[in-house]
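Repro:
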Amino acid sequence: MSPTILQSPRSVPLQQDATIMGLVGLAHASSHFAHLLLAPLFPVFMTEFGLSYAELGLLMSTFFVVSGLGQATSGFVVDRLGARPMLFVALGIFVLACVAASRVTGYAGLVGVAALAGLGNATFHPVDFTILSQRVSHPRLGHAFSVHGLTGYLGWAAAPVFLVTLSGLYNWRTAYLAAAVMYVGILLLLILQRDKLSTQVAVQHEGVAAEHSMAFMKLPVVWWCFAFFLFSTMTLAVVQSFSVSILKAMHGVSFEAATLTLSAYMVCGAVGTFVGGFIAGRTANSDRVVAASMAVAAVLLALCGTGLLGAVGTMVVLAGTGFAVGIGGPSRDMMIKNATPKGATGRVYGLVYSGLDTGFALSPFVFGVFMDRGWYGATLFGAAAVLLLSVVAALGVGRRTAAAIAPARQQV
């Protein structure tokens, strides 16, 4: 017997939906801020602690290994206990991670911060999509996914500016304490608005076999979704972790200008996600939108890798790559939703989005070796090639989802 899932009404006030989107979006932005809790200050850590690119890449790998393992299992917890308590716990862990970051004295401390922040990040996607799927009316889900993706990009964009600016004005330890205060404020706001974040748990009735809750893992389409996130986020990890260093090495761009380019990439991604929300709401074949946007982004990234565009041209095109990826974001979430069995939202999103964590974990470690050898252009070419693999995965998801829907349509 399938778990009971709360269904959103067909028509609810816009203000109610918008409030829920905004609260979930704020939480999502905070989790993406945590993705870049360490990376923007890599140059500082290299100087202060004498670290290599490979060691820095391992920090990101630590974050996403912990997050991925936690995310793959947290979906079950969210389905059983509800999304709201898991959200509050995660934000509390982020506060602890920021305080710990302000006090580190070496590489071991940074590894500990990465692991703690990764643990906090583990529950966010199952939490977010469970709340959105249950609390937002179905006709506005495309826009809800757009807002969700957009706020994620804004969180990524804010982290480098926030941390680098405060580090320049004060010092990097003070910047992390300020980040801790920010997370406390977000947690307090969500607690005050907690009635809008409640979800109905999935109840397993007596006699239901334990393996029933694992049945979704036998569906090939779920693993195609996992593969899509694995490949697409390996590319994103390169941009987040190494784009600043690549711009400095290939074109002599200043640290501040390179950091602003990374933020511009995220802002362009947010704009693309906003536009993509309208596309997702009007396009039936979400997989094709995703595949097209990722293919364009791969071409742009490869152009940056040639080094022929010059400093300004590379910065502009790299930022434009974010727009292309952002266009496919809402359609990507619709693609996953369409492939999700009824009553398994938390579990499926937990497993599928652990592919995101796996990609983030593998990529900095692999491409950190490229960076240590001075293969800056090859790093971008490699990222573009991996992004093309995500195109194949997206089309694979679409084919298998369509194959699963076709028999049901024939019976109607």
